[in-house]
Design goal:
175 residues, alpha+beta, Thiol Ester Dehydrase, Chain A, 7 strands, binds coenzyme A
Length: 175
């Protein structure tokens, strides 16, 4: 669970996408390497969850938990010494949950190679003091890009709900 000390915000007070924006920058070392000498994919996934969790907490103004992570592709390898930059912001909100988008870029320390390594979408749920889901502020998507991300996030939410419902029905039919 990600947490912070601030009191729970007024859930009716809308917040902008910009309010949730997070940038994390970290240089990769041998400690993060796999047997091939490249950076372990799990290290990047943890950084993605860290950056996205911070964005979700900023929007929710309190503790959140990771509910799900959509498919995450590794487009380019990340090497020891690379500087990894993660940019995260809230794409869309439901009642108690929110989708966060994260983009990961890697650059060698000379600045001569810069690649987009991954993008991911994660869902977080805000929790109250008793650990139950709690309502979060509405989201204001101000720019055309933010509005496009919000529309696409709604499509992904519908697809997730439809998939979960289909699996629930299939399991019920097997019993
Ligand atoms: C996430 C969790 C709080 C949801 O609890 P729940 O009892 O299913 O809650 P609800 O059914 O009331 O759903 C609450 C919200 O979560 C969303 N949600 C629940 N499961 C989800 C999933 N697997 N993927 C995406 N969203 C999910 C629901 O759509 C709902 O969103 P909305 O309020 O915006 O419409 C609960 O499953 C949990 O605690 N999971 C463990 C989280 C965790 O430990 N994460 C890793 C460490 S941080």
């Amino acid at each position: 669970m990600e947490s912070e000390d601030a009191a729970e915000p007024d859930a009716r007070e809308p917040r902008t996408v910009a309010h949730s924006e997070v940038m994390l920058v970290q240089q990769m070392t041998q400690l993060e390497a796999n047997l091939l000498g490249n950076i372990h994919g799990g290290v990047i996934m943890k950084l993605v969850d860290n950056a996205a969790g911070l964005a979700a907490m900023k929007h929710a103004g309190g503790p959140v938990v990771t509910a799900s992570l959509d498919e995450m592709a590794f487009i380019e390898p990340v090497f020891v010494g690379d500087v990894v930059t993660l940019r995260a912001s809230v794409n869309d909100v439901g009642r108690t949950s929110m989708e966060v988008g994260v983009r990961v870029d890697a650059e060698n320390y000379l600045g001569t190679r810069k690649v987009h390594t991954s993008s991911a979408y994660l869902v977080y749920v805000a929790l109250d003091a008793t650990g139950r889901p709690r309502p979060i502020p509405p989201l204001i998507a101000e720019t055309a890009v933010q509005q496009q991300r919000q529309r696409e996030a709604k499509l992904r939410r519908e697809a997730r709900l439809a998939r979960n419902e289909a699996i629930r029905k299939a399991r019920a039919a097997e019993e």
